[in-house]
Amino acid sequence: MSKTNKPATNALLKQAHNNMPLGVADSYRYWGEDNTVFVKSSLGCTITDADDQQFIDFRLAYGPIILGYRDSRVDQAVISAITERGTISGFSTDLDSQVVELIKQMCPNIEKMRFANSGTEAVIGAVRTARGFTGRNKIVVVEGGFHGLYDEMMWKSDVDNWDSTTEAAPQIAAFGGGIPEASREHLETVPLNDFAAIDEVFARVGDDIAAIVIEPILGNCGSIASSQAYMHKLREICDANGSLLIMDEVKTGFRVAKGGAQALYGIHADLTTYAKAMGNGYPVAAFGGRSDVMDVISFNKKGVTHGGTYTANIIALSAAKATLTILNESDAFDSINKAGADIQQVLSRVFNRHGIEHKFAGPDAMFGIHFGNQVPENYRDWKQTDSELYTQFALNLIEKGIMLEPDSREPWFICESHKDIDLVKLEEIANAAMAKALVERG
What is the CA radius of gyration of the chain? Predict the structure, then answer.
C-alpha cells in the first residue's frame, strides 16, 4: 500500500496482536497485515505514520476534522478549560447552555438539546425520544444509511451480495455476529428516493411508525443524496401520520453548511443528531429538536431516560464551543468548499484524460466519486458503478502519499487546511495512480 519496508509499523502490529482482536482498537482500522496504518503524528491535513511516511489525508478520521488536525484555536481552548475547570465533575456547567445557544444560532431546527459522546449514542437518544413522544415502536430507515453500531441499526440491506438480475431486493442481514433476531422486529428498510416504497410501508404499518431516520446525504454511501422532492415527501408523510422525522447529521452537521444538510434542503427535522465535525476531532455529540418532543425526557414515570457519566464533559464542550464559534464567525466554510471544488476539478481532468466516465455526488466538503455515467440515486444504483476500479485507484493514491478510504462508499472529506495543498502535485499523483490502475486491471 505504501512503503514496503515498514519496520516500526510491523513491530507495532505484532505487539498489538497480543493485546487486541485483529491488533486494533476499532475493527475498521485493520487493513490487513501489510496495510494497517499506525499514526505517529498529525497536523493540518496531513498524517505521518510510524515509519515517517507523510500523507495528505482525505479520510479525516471518517469526517470529524473540519478545521485541521491540531488546530491551535481549538486545542488552546481545551487546554485553558482543563486548566481552569478540570475535565469532569458530574454536575452542570455554564458551557452546557453556551454550546446549545451557539448551535441554535446556526441551526433553526433546534429548540432544545441533550449531549452525548458519539454518533451512536446520539441516535439511540433520538430514537428513544421519538418512541417516547409518539408511543409507537417502528423506525423506518433508508438503505445505505449508517446510524451507529447498536443492534437495531445493524440490520442492513446486503447490497454487496445482491444479484440484481435474480433478486427483487437485497436481503436484510445482520451486520456481523452477536445481533439477536429480535432486534430487527421494529425496523423497516426502504430504498432512498423511492416514493412507492415509503407509501407502502406507511400503508402497511403506519399506525406504529414512530419515526423515519435518514441521512439526507449518505455519508457511508458515496454521498448519494436525497432529492429535494423526496425530502418534501418524508416531511409531509410524517406530518400527516403523526410520525417524527429524524435527520441523522452526524456526518453532515457543521460540515456541509452552518445549518447542516437541513440548510441546503430548507426542510427541518423534528429531531436531529450531531457529532463528528462539531468538535474538530474531540469526542462530542448531541441530539435535539422541537421543544415539545425533547421535553418527554424527564423523571416522570412515562418519561424518557437520558444520561451518561461523560456526557457534556468539559473537554468535549470546550472543543465544541471553540469549533462552532470559528465555523459560525469566520469564512472557514468558504475555504473548505473552494478546496473541495478545486480538488474535484483536478480529479475530473485526470479521469477525462484516461477516458473514465465519472460523476461526483454530494457537497464539496464531503464528495463521493462514482465511476459510471450517472449519479446513483440510491444504494442499489451504487452496485452498478465500477467500484473495483475505484478501489485500485485509491490504493495507488495511498502508495504515493494520498490517504483516503479505498471503498467508494466513503466520501472524500475536506477540511479548512486543505486550502493550502499543492494541486499540481495532486494531479500528478492522481494521473499516475489511474494509469497504474488501468494497467493492473488489464
Answer: 22
* Cell of residue 97, nine digits: 447552555
Per-residue CA distances from 239 to 9, 233, 234, 276 (Å): 54, 10, 9, 29
Please say whether the beta carbons of 315 and 87 come within 8 A.
yes
Residue 412, exposed/middle/buried by CB under 10 A (0-12, 13-18, 19+)? buried
Answering whether pTM is above 0.70, one says yes
The residue with cell 477540511 is 415
Distance CA 103, CA 139 (A): 26
Helix (H) or strand (E) holding 127: helix 119-134
Torsion of CA 289, 281, 254, 76, to 10 degrees: 100
Q: Is 321 exposed, middle or buried (0-12, 13-18, 19+ CB in 10 A)?
A: buried
- For residue 51, CA distances in Å to 2, 3, 8, 45 come to 10, 8, 6, 18
- Which residue matches cell numbers 448551535? 103
- The stretch 316-337 carries a mean pLDDT of 98
Q: Name the DSSP class of 217.
A: B
If 0-12 CB within 10 Å is exposed, 13-18 middle and 19+ buried, where does residue 163 land? exposed
Q: Is 72 helix (H, G, I), strand (E, B) or coil?
A: helix
Asked whether the predicted pLDDT for residue 166 surpasses 90, the reply is no
Helix 423-441 × helix 387-399 angle, to 10°: 130
Q: Is 169 left (phi over 0), alpha (psi -120 to 50) or beta?
A: beta
